[in-house]
Every structure is written in C-alpha cells, then in structure tokens.
Amino acid sequence: MVVGLVFCAVNQGKVALNDFHSAHHVVDRDEEQSAMARTEALSYTHLPNKRASAANGIEYAFRDMDQAGDDGIPLVLLQHFRGNLDNWDPALIDRLSASRRVVTFDNTGVGGTTGTTPDTIEQMGHDAVSFLSAMHIEQADILGYSIGSFVAQQIALTRPALVRRLVLASAAPQGAAGMHGWAPEVIAAVGGRQQNMAGYLSVFYAPSAASQQTGKQSLQRMQSRTQNRDAPTNWDTRQAQYDAVCTWGSPDHSLLERVAAIEMPVLVANGDADPMILPRYSHLLTGLIPHARIKIYPDSAHGFLFQYHAEFAADVDAFLAGPEARIPQPR
Length: 331
Prior knowledge:
Blueprint: E1 7-11, E2 14-18, H1 29-41, E3 50-53, E4 59-65, E5 75-78, H2 90-96, E6 102-105, H3 121-134, E7 140-145, H4 147-158, E8 163-169, H5 184-190, H6 197-204, H7 209-222, H8 235-248, E9 266-271, H9 279-288, E10 292-297, H10 304-307, H11 309-320
Parallel strand pairs: 5-6, 5-7, 7-8, 8-9, 9-10
Antiparallel strand pairs: 1-2, 3-4, 4-6
Helix pairs in contact: 2-11, 3-4, 5-6
C-alpha cells in the first residue's frame, strides 16, 4: 500500500510541511531481493546472546548485529513494555542492519539482564547509559520504541553528547494530559500475568484483516528462534515498568517544555490506530522538539514498525543518512 504522507519539520514552534524525498519511500523489488540475499548470510534470528559487565554492577544481555561490517556510529534499540531481545521482529532488525551496526539489549532487570527493574524512566535512562559505557560506545543513533521512546528522550536530555540522531517510535512527551496509564482494555490485553496473543494482536495491529495478518506473520518470525532464546520478562518487571509509565504520564504541563532542549535531529513515528500511545501524542511531541519530523503509517497500530518493517527501515535509514540539522545560534 502506497502511503502519501509528509514529514513535519518543526522550528521555533512553526510547522512547515515538506515531502520526504518528494514522495513516499517505496521499497522496490531490487532492494527487496538485495536485502534478502544479505540476510541469508546473517540474521537476527541466529545471533548469539552476549553479556556486558557495567560499572554499575549489572550484567547486560545483548545482541550485536553488524552484517555490514560498519565501523561507524551504531544504532542502539530500546525495547517496548515487557519486551526482551526476542520481541524484536527479525525482519526489521535484518533490514536496519543492512547498512549499519545494530545493537539490542535488555535494560536492568529485564529478560537476561541482572538486577531489579527500576520504576522510573529517569533511572532506566541512567542504566541504558551504563550499558553504552560498558560497550565503549561514545556516540550512537538511538531508536526508542514505546516505553523505550521515553527512555530515549531521557538519555537525549541527560547525556546529549551521546546521541547523534534520535528515532522515537510510538512516542509521547512526559506530562501530557490523558497519558496517566493506558486504557483499561489496553492494559488488560498486554498487562496480564498470562500471555495473551489475541490481546497482543488487538493492541499492536489495526482491526483490518490485512493488519492482523501481518501481525501473525511478525509473531511467527519472532518465535522462529528455537534455541538460546532470551529469558522472559517477569511480573516484577511488568509492575516496575507500568509504574514508570504512569509516573511519566502524570499530567504536568511544565514538563512538556523539557524536550525543547533536545537539539539533535529527531524522527517521530507511529501507527494511525495505535491505542496504546495515541498518534496525537506523537504529533504533540514533534511540535515540542525543535528539529523533529513525523510520519504516521496507515492501517496500523502499536506494532506499525513490524507491520511496515521494510518501509520503516528504509525511512530510518534515509533519516540517519540525512544532512545534519542546523542548530540555531544564541541571540
């Protein structure tokens, strides 16, 4: 499906619309075949689990995808609510890593990483910085997804020199009205003690047959790894992460101003039917960040980046390869 959407470039509170490469980024058949050929040699599905010992005493579980042999700036991914290393769609990671190094990891207390999951986004941000230090990563492009997008914002504010470019998927700013916890049907679908695949599909994918089908295909790809899977997240992690989400979403108009200090280029993205983080919050976030642009994907929900894995990866690649933003000089 061709998506005729535009990006919004925001500067000093004024929104200017411009085409992203003059049109929707279409992945042609040659690109498709080339990507498939590359991933035959190495796929996220087969990556070994590794561990990194950090100065904070935490042993971080991670996977390091570098099929391009790239010595440049890596792309580091921050996972969604209750997600671990196995909850990334291999099709997305394989495409993202076709032209750069991609690192996924479990933050403190999540999956195979030791420690206790903190109950604040601020501490999650500090713990993520500790992981990057343990990996000797002095600068990175960061892709934060869902609760990971909150952590990514925190990193960009706490340690701005660490972040070259920022991708915020299914994102919202701290303090936005109406963000204090998720709707009852959403938390019931993805926040229960027992795994609920039907609930997951209802939140991560739009109601249409096409979207639901891509969701089932994505789940099959995630479950295709049969050996050396990551440890599942536990109930304590669920509780701590949801506490952090509720604190982040407590209405406080003054906190909305924080992201105005994020000066690196930012790409915000979401699905047009995301029930977990409504698209209007992603638009709000884009308008608050000086050098942000946004893309909304049609007939998709919280898992839009898995549903549109080829297109989203191409959009991220184009964004990361784009020209640097001009930072306004003090007046």
